[in-house]
């Protein structure tokens, strides 16, 4: 029996070919996929729609995100993104502890609202200990207290043609060529009416700190952190978000992230 | 191939010249094999891209920022000797400047866990890495399911992959043969092949998919026990990374074995399905025809 099926030269040639294939692997051959105009990227992004549909099917409308115990709260909530807005209007609200601040609820509603923090706190509240999952990969467990968004939507009487809740924020996330870009994002009404979707004003038993989004941030517990805007000033009910930003439904979505942050 | 097919059909009557060629891999096996190769290539390099967004691994439900549950992390620091890249594993620090933690050209150094040549895209781009990763995750999962169904129907699982008692008895000898680079070429997989392929297809890849899903907040609502099963979301992420290392190790050994066992014959069997076996008199392996009966 022959011990080797190929000669030493054959082996070395194959090894060299294999090694050069490996060396080529990363390089920059696929960098064009970074462009959101890329047609191939458009095909690949089709998988995001599939993920959204399958996860909606598996998780249903009202399945709850896992909740944890007090013993799991082991550290302050890790802040991310903007942690100290320097916008003039925000700083003015901050200087008198957000007493002048109002949450506007507008768009496709029968009854537009303007709610103070005290009014929100006076409404029935929900407290939940949940795990915040950042798109970067880290997790942090904290206790959130707030007004269920569904109660606010009920009070505003959402019109039947509304499909999304859009969050308009006070913090400048980017100084773009066309001026300051304030953070914005959107969720569908299934998540907006989900029992754990709350407008949080409390964190770990204390008022929500500035770095975590004071006076108000949304918690959307079945999605990633970038789907939970901080420093909210207005919730707008819309039937389409194509007119907002670049039309993908949010600040990060307009920069290539999936609109449904379920994975 | 036509000659080979004819040879096999005639072989019961008279041994043809190509009597040693056997049809080893079905079209289902070959097609899914190459789809997996493609998918795993992109999953690996986009996975490293995603990892670079937060290059630390932890044990538990959450990431310790005020406490330490880190098992592996990469970082870059400015030192009196210039910028350095570090790898921290279980509390031990290694200087990995140039590859891990800090990499790039002399005038173009970047603080990044895995270097540009190991990620897709080459620059830092988490959003694009995720788009490509999830596309190929679907492709891999779908192909695995198709392969599983096809292999149950065409007998590939039962006939070729399931280890038998005789295989396990042969294990020590098989290990010795591999160590001596002594390869038998027969229709059947040897014991180590069965264990390696079975381990990848029935242990590593399913674990990879499940730990991936355990990191999804939406799946966390649908199947809350999934993350707990792996010891929490951050442990699931650590397992996901560890399985990646095992799959890379499998790939390297797979390539070395193919090169040592005869790359043209091995490649041909995975492209056309036809494989040249050892002459019947030369080995103690069952002959091609008896193995197919």
From TrEMBL, chain A:
Domain Oxidoreductase molybdopterin-binding, chain residue ranges per copy: 97-240
Segment forming the signal sequence: 1-25
Top-level taxonomic group: Bacteria
Gene3D superfamilies associated with the record: Oxidoreductase, molybdopterin-binding domain
Keywords attached to this entry: Signal
Name of the protein in question: Molybdopterin-dependent oxidoreductase
Automatic annotation (TrEMBL), chain B:
Bilayer topology term: Multi-pass membrane protein
PROSITE patterns: NI_HGENASE_CYTB_1 (PS00882)
Keyword tags: Cell membrane, Electron transport, Heme, Iron, Membrane, Metal-binding, Transmembrane, Transmembrane helix, Transport
Coiled coil region boundaries: none
Location(s) in or outside the cell: Cell membrane
Keyword Zinc among record annotations: no
GO BP annotations listed: respiratory electron transport chain
One term of GO molecular function: electron transfer activity
Superkingdom, natural source: Bacteria
Predominant cellular place of this UniProt entry's protein: membrane
Membrane-spanning intervals of the chain: 34-51, 131-153, 195-219, 239-261
A GO cellular component annotation in the UniProt record: plasma membrane
Domain Cytochrome b561 bacterial/Ni-hydrogenase: 182-273
Family: Belongs to the HupC/HyaC/HydC family.
Protein name (database record): Cytochrome b/b6 domain-containing protein
Species annotation: Mesorhizobium zhangyense
UniProt lineage: Bacteria, Pseudomonadati, Pseudomonadota, Alphaproteobacteria, Hyphomicrobiales
């Amino acid at each position: 029996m022959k011990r080797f099926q190929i000669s030493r030269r054959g082996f070395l040639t194959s090894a060299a070919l294999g090694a050069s294939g490996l060396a080529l692997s990363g390089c920059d051959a696929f960098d064009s996929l970074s462009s959101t105009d890329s047609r191939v990227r458009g095909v690949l992004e089709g998988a995001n729609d599939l993920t959204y549909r399958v996860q909606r099917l598996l998780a249903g409308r009202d399945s709850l995100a896992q909740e944890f115990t007090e013993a799991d709260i082991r550290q302050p909530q890790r802040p991310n993104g903007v942690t100290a807005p320097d916008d003039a209007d925000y700083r003015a609200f901050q200087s008198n502890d957000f007493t002048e601040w109002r949450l506007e609820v507008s768009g496709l509603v029968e009854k537009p609202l303007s709610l103070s923090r005290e009014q929100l706190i006076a409404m029935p509240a929900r407290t939940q200990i949940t795990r915040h999952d950042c798109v970067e990969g880290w997790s942090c467990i904290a206790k959130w207290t707030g007004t269920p968004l569904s109660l606010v939507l009920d009070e505003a009487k959402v019109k039947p043609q509304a499909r999304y809740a859009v969050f308009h924020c006070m913090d400048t996330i980017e100084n773009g060529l066309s001026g300051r870009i304030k953070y914005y994002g959107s969720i569908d009404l299934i998540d907006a009416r989900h029992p754990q979707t709350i407008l949080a004003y409390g964190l770990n038993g204390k008022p929500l700190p500035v770095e975590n989004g004071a006076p108000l941030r949304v918690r959307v517990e079945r999605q990633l952190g970038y789907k939970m805007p901080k420093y909210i000033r207005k919730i707008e009910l819309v039937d389409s978000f194509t007119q907002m930003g670049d039309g993908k439904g949010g600040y990060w979505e307009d920069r290539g992230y999936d609109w449904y942050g379920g994975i | 191939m036509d000659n080979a097919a004819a040879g096999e059909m005639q072989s019961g009557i008279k041994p043809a010249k190509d009597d040693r060629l056997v049809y080893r891999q079905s079209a289902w096996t070959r097609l899914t094999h190459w789809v997996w190769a493609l998918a795993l290539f992109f999953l690996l390099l986009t996975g490293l891209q995603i990892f670079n967004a937060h290059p630390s691994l932890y044990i538990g439900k959450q990431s310790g920022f005020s406490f330490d549950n880190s098992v592996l992390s990469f970082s870059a620091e400015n030192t009196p000797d210039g910028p350095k890249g570090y790898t921290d594993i279980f509390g031990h620090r290694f200087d990995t400047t140039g590859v891990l933690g800090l990499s790039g050209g002399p005038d173009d150094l970047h603080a990044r866990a895995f270097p540009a040549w190991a990620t897709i895209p080459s620059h830092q781009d988490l959003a694009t890495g995720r788009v490509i990763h999830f596309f190929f995750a679907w492709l891999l999962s779908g192909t695995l399911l198709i392969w599983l169904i096809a292999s149950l129907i065409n007998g590939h699982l039962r006939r070729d992959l399931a280890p038998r008692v005789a295989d396990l008895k042969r294990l020590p000898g098989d290990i010795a043969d591999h160590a001596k680079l002594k390869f038998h070429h027969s229709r059947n997989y040897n014991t180590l092949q069965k264990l390696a392929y079975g381990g990848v297809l029935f242990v590593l890849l399913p674990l990879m998919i499940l730990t991936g899903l355990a990191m999804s907040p939406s799946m966390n609502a649908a199947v809350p026990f999934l993350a707990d099963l792996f010891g929490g979301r951050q442990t699931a992420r650590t397992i996901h990374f560890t399985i990646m290392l095992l799959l890379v190790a499998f790939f390297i050994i797979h390539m070395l074995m193919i090169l040592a066992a005869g790359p043209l014959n091995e490649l041909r069997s995975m492209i056309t399905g036809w494989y040249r076996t050892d002459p019947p008199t030369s080995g103690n392996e069952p002959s091609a025809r008896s193995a197919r009966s």
